[in-house]
């Protein structure tokens, strides 16, 4: 386990130990901070897309070129 993983583990354990209303306040502060909110959204999207099939970059660029041509 890396230092970052261990720190995250300790933080999450402490967060879970907080009373519900305090946890809600922490989450509310995170949501109200635009930068943190974007980071959490990005992480959630990345996590959801981990199961998607991959394809080579050249194939993606080729498909993108075709879509662009069709849109014009």
From the structure above, extract its key features:
single chain; 72 residues
Characterize the structure shown.
- The protein has four helices and no strands.
- The protein has one domain.
- The protein is mainly alpha-helical and 72 residues long.
Secondary-structure blueprint of this entry?
Blueprint: H1 3-17, H2 20-32, H3 34-49, H4 57-71
Question: Structural class of the secondary elements?
Answer: mainly alpha
Radius of gyration: 19 Å
Form type:
elongated
Which stretches are poorly predicted, pLDDT < 50 over at least 5 residues? Answer: none
Report the β-strand fraction as a percent range. under 5%
Outline the biggest β-sheet. Answer: none
Number of helices: 4
Count of individual beta strands: 0
Count of all domains: 1
From the N-terminal CA to the C-terminal CA, the straight-line distance is 51 Å
> How confident overall, as mean pLDDT?
94
Reading the helices and strands in chain order gives HHHH
Assembly type: single chain
How helical, in percent, are the residues? over 70%
């Amino acid at each position: 386990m890396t230092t970052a993983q261990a720190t995250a583990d300790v933080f999450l354990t402490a967060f879970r130990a907080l009373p519900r209303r305090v946890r809600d306040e922490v989450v509310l502060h995170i949501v109200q901070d635009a930068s943190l909110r974007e980071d959490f959204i990005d992480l959630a999207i990345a996590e959801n897309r981990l199961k998607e099939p991959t394809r080579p970059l050249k194939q993606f660029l080729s498909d993108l070129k075709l879509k662009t041509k069709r849109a014009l």
